[in-house]
């Protein structure tokens, strides 16, 4: 193996066959299916990522090719990869990083670092893990990842963009996050790991080379990006400045989109009929979030008309959608009515909460105005109209976002239109 070493799992196809696994790697499991294997489900860099499975009785392991420890002692190396979980149970996302002396014998695995999955605060989001192997004192020459036996029911972990390289003296920032996005600004945060107090930040329009941007020296974190263009997608990178000429490499790219400008056009209308259908179909100035599923709920569906917004929730899944920001400046309290149509296909489906938000990225700002239940949509397979007067409290905020929220409960499907 040549150091630095990179494996993106993109060149082997998918599935459990040995031909669909990186050459010179090994995998071990005590399960009947050959976990881990390469999957195409929501890879960070398409088309592949490595899919681990474990239960209270089964484990799965992936072992990288042998390292020349004469030229590259294990304790001088660092392992870096991206990790994702798909469920809210803690052991989803669990992984151990370690070293082995024999890639065919699981008992020779010595863990160096362990993650339980609780470190990954959100499902279906990629997080970066970087582990220096400086504390390893054994004689192994194989770096391995193990999903240990954990929950009684099966749990899953996905890995992508696996790297091994000489340990740097200035560690790069990881898990860059963007929040409080407006039409012209966004708040940037990251995890700092070298006790540095200076960084550089580069932001460029999405798809442009990082080299086209101008690095900006930053002395605080979080840091607010300003002078952005509304409804525009950007890529941002962060680098640590450790002093004495020592700098980290750039962080992984983080992509975000600024909000559309608020609209003051009243009446405000949306019939979802111009966006196509499927999980990628969604109004450009609206915001959607989901938890507990890889499917991008809610999305525009044409099963019951020219287009409607299709929501799904379950005991472990919720989803919501928020409109473009409405500027209520100059509107008289109590003068506006929020109206919508709802549709359900089953007597047990149809629950949705309707209201407004002040921050479309923060479900805690949701103010419920009305709840629709399955008994409100009887007989099924018909459209029903509902409305509510916006309360005076809504006018205390310059901008609000009309919102539909399908909370976690038993399996639930509902359609919203007009």
Major β-sheet profile? 6 strands, antiparallel
Order of helices and strands: EEEEEEEEEEEEEEEEEEEEEEEEEEEEEE
Question: Percent of residues in beta strands?
Answer: 35-45%
Question: How far apart are the termini?
Answer: 59 Å
Q: Taking Cα atoms only, what radius of gyration do you get, to the nearest Å?
A: 25 Å
Question: What integer is the average pLDDT?
Answer: 91
| Uncertain residue ranges | none
Shape: globular
Number of contiguous helices: 0
Number-wise, the strands total: 30
- Oligomer state equals single chain
| Structural class label | mainly beta
Helical content (DSSP H or I, runs of 4+): under 10%
Care to give the gist of this entry?
The protein has no helices and 30 strands. The chain is mainly β. Strands 1, 3, 4, 6, 9 and 11 form a six-stranded antiparallel sheet that branches. Strands 20, 23, 24, 26, 27 and 29 form a six-stranded antiparallel sheet that branches. A five-stranded antiparallel sheet has the order 2-5-10-7-8, with no helix packed on it.
């Amino acid at each position: 193996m040549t150091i630095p070493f990179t494996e993106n799992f993109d060149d082997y196809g998918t599935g459990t066959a040995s031909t669909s696994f990186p050459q010179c790697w090994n995998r071990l499991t005590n399960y009947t299916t050959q976990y881990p294997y390469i999957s195409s489900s929501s890879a960070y860099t398409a088309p592949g990522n490595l899919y681990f499975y474990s239960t209270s009785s089964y484990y799965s392991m992936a072992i990288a090719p042998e390292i020349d420890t004469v030229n590259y002692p294990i304790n001088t190396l660092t392992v870096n990869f991206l990790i994702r979980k798909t469920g809210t149970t803690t052991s989803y996302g669990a992984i151990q990083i370690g070293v082995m002396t024999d890639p065919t014998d699981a008992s020779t695995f010595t863990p160096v670092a362990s993650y339980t999955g609780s470190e990954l605060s959100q499902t279906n989001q990629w997080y970066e893990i970087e582990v220096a192997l400086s504390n390893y004192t054994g004689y192994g020459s194989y770096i391995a990842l193990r999903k240990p036996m954990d929950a009684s029911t099966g749990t899953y972990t996905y890995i992508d963009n696996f790297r091994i390289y000489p340990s740097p003296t200035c560690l790069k920032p990881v898990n860059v996050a963007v929040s409080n996005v407006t039409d012209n600004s966004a708040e940037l945060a990251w995890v700092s790991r070298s006790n540095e107090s200076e960084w550089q930040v580069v932001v460029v329009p999405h798809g442009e080379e990082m080299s086209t941007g101008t690095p900006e020296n930053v002395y605080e974190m979080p840091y607010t990006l300003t002078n952005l263009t509304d409804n525009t997608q950007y890529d941002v990178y962060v680098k640590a400045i450790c002093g004495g000429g020592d700098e980290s490499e750039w962080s992984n790219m983080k992509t975000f989109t600024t909000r559309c400008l608020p609209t003051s056009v009243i009446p405000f209308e949306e019939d979802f009929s111009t966006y196509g259908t499927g999980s990628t179909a969604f109004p450009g100035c609206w915001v959607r979030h989901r938890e507990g599923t890889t499917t991008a709920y809610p999305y525009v569906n044409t099963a019951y008309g020219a287009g409607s917004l299709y929501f799904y929730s379950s005991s472990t899944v919720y989803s919501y959608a928020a409109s473009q920001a409405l500027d209520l400046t100059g509107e008289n309290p109590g003068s506006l009515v929020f109206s919508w149509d709802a549709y359900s296909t089953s007597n047990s489906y149809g629950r949705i909460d309707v209201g407004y938000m002040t921050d479309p990225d923060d479900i805690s700002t949701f103010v419920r105005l009305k709840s629709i239940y399955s008994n409100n949509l009887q007989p099924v397979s018909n459209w029903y109209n509902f409305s509510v007067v916006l309360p005076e409290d809504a006018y205390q905020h310059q901008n609000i976002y009309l919102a539909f929220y399908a909370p976690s409960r038993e399996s639930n499907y509902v359609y919203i239109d007009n």
